[in-house]
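Section 5.1 Outputs to date
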Amino acid sequence: MSALVLASRSPARARLLADAGVSFTVQAAELDEAPLKARALARGRSPREVACDLAEAKGLAVARGRQGLVIGADQTLDLEGRLLDKPPTLADARSQLQALRGREHRLHAAVTVSEGEAVIWRTVETVRLRMRGFSDGFLDAYLTREGEALLGCVGAYRLEAMGVQLFEAIDGHYFAVLGLPLLPLLHFLRAQGHVAA
């Protein structure tokens, strides 16, 4: 069985794979995502397509010139067709959460598997989430408790922690909210012999 590599810095993705019993190593893709996103948006790519483009770019960046399979993954937040990025500061996190409060948005979680110069498998899942109309007091307490951990999260929330209290409805898979469509990925990895059938 060839090596399996996760081309992501996301601790949530690594934890999901490890908890599922998948053996892998981590090598984050050294990509500047900002110009990739800007070019994709300039070409009229949707937030869902941008997630797919970034997952593919990350996987291929690590897969080139190495043996084995490489998992690339990315996630975008789509607020009525507008792509929101990870907030760079807690003030930006507050602004994002205020913009999302009481509204529905979508998370697009894309994953690819690459080998050498080719993407050999890909999928994307979309989850619809509706935030409740939480109070400013709750928002203050949330930002204080979660702190800078939110700066690594698109939408400034971690559903696996206190962020679950921000929501009134979620339609889609939990794993996709965490940034990895795990069930279809495991199905593919079983077919490749990386996970017991």
